[in-house]
Amino acid sequence: MSEREVVTLLFLAVGIVILSVTIWAWRGRSFTARRWMYRPMGGKITERAVILGGPICGLGSLGLAAIALPPHAFGLAFIGYELAATTRTAGVVLLVLLVLPLLYWFLKFIPLPDVLYPGWAREARAYRRRFPRPSPSQPPHPKDRPDQWGT
Predict the structure, then answer these.
(1) Is residue 149 part of a domain?
(2) Is 150 among the domain residues?
(3) Which of 52, 65, 69, 113 has the lowest tally of Cβ within 10 angstroms?
(4) What domain range includes position 108?
(5) Cα–Cα distance between 109 and 15 in angstroms, integer?
């Protein structure tokens, strides 16, 4: 096996693993899979990583695998120069298309729309909006402190 074939397999495996973990977390069939939505500290960062970061990294890795695919890879005759050029072009197009979601992922001040979230996470977000919790870094409200007379 040549080095390009090994690199192709490595990018392909990394992309499939990242996409699999993202789909597992997005579906949220278990509490462990839903944990990214219920983190009190840094919840927005983990939400953005699951909603945008995982698919972008996984698809980007698959695009790099398509670009690295050499002609006649793995001893297969049907992977000729035409198919290798087509996969290379598809990989470049995929990477170019991922630029806009990548920018949206990094611009944290732009909120993510509810459409991007799965149904169970939309319910959790609606609950959070109805009953907001103060963060530990937020100063306490004056009514939360007992006054000097203990009332």
Answers:
(1) no
(2) no
(3) 113
(4) 3-144
(5) 27
Classify residue 134: in a domain, yes or no.
yes
pTM: 0.77
Residues 69-122 pLDDT 10s: 888 777 766 677 888 889 999 999 999 999 999 998 888 888 889 999 998 888
Token digits of residue 66: 């398509």
CA dihedral 70, 81, 13, 46 (to 10 degrees): 110
DSSP-assigned letters across all residues of 93-145: HHHHHTHHHHHHHH-TTSPPPGGGS-HHHHHHHHHHHHS----TTSPPPGGGS
The total of structural domains in the chain comes to 1
* Residue 99 · residue 107 · CB < 8 Å: no
**pLDDT tens digits for range 112-126:** 899 999 988 888 888
